[in-house]
Amino acid sequence: MTTGAARADFALSVRDLSVRYGPVHALADVDIELGVGRVTALIGMNGSGKSSLFNAIMGRVRPASGEIGVFGQSSLAARRAGLVAYLPQQESIDWDFPISVRQVVMTGRFGMLGPTRRPRAIDREAVVDALRRVGLADLEERQIGELSGGQRKRVFLARSIAQQARLLLLDEPFAGVDKASEASIIALLHELRDSGCGILISTHDLAGVPELADEVVLLRNRVLFHGPTAEALDPAMLTRVFGLEASA
Fold it and tell me: How many C-beta neighbours within 10 Å does residue 188 have?
């Protein structure tokens, strides 16, 4: 894959991206440019290609064609540098495994630990600061499986903060989360946005999008719209995306 899409003035540059699974065209000729310091909502029905887009950025699927750049680098170089953090709908973790909140957040530092993999003072300080920012400093020794759904989401956001990622990809981060935790997560995402991160969030909660996002990408295997939230949520526009009336 070439890297001509990599522009330093964009958090994410996707150009002419196509992803196929056999005869199925999951994504076709997708073009997206996400600005630095912006929260972008990714909206589309199930099967519209949202997960395929995330997986292509993360190198989990090989695109049929296209280019992906992150902050002026190829997506591979950006991932290796720890610039990209991905929060899937369900973390592949054994919730019964005896690992603490602090240890989970420390995994965000692994790429910076060097060959010995021994945390230094700077790594421990980064973890403490990340847990403080997500409001979980008092739970750092708690076993991860003992936390609520909202607390678990905040732990993995803390891991991204400790990693010092600059592009955050979140797949349905509010699923199974109570309203108080959702408000806390949104406030934290806005704080990260204001510090210069680019954030792409897939969500089915259309009512919450105006509070959450600065802009919206409407996806139905190709980009149907990318722009202001109010225009994206126009009933006629949503009908194109979901194939039904917005009120249905």
Answer: 18
- Please give the tally of structural domains in the chain: 1
Tell me what the pLDDT averaged over the chain comes to.
Answer: 90
Exposure on the CB side of residue 245, measured as CA atoms within 13 A: 2
- Pair of tokens at residue 175: 């699923």
Q: Is residue 149 part of a domain?
A: no
In a domain? residue 152:
no
Distance in angstroms (rounded) separating the CA atoms of residues 19 and 25: 6
Domain that holds residue 73: 1-83+203-243
CB 158 within 8 A of CB 131: yes
Q: How far apart are CA 32 and CA 11, in angstroms?
A: 10
**Does residue 10 belong to any structural domain of this protein?**
yes
34 within domain boundaries: yes
Whole-number pLDDT of residue 53: 97
160 backbone dihedrals φ, ψ, rounded to 5° = -65, -40
pLDDT of the residue at 2 = 39
CATH number, domain containing residue 38: 3.40.50.300
DSSP state of 3: -
Pair 168, 36: CB distance under 8 Å: no
3-class DSSP state of 72: coil
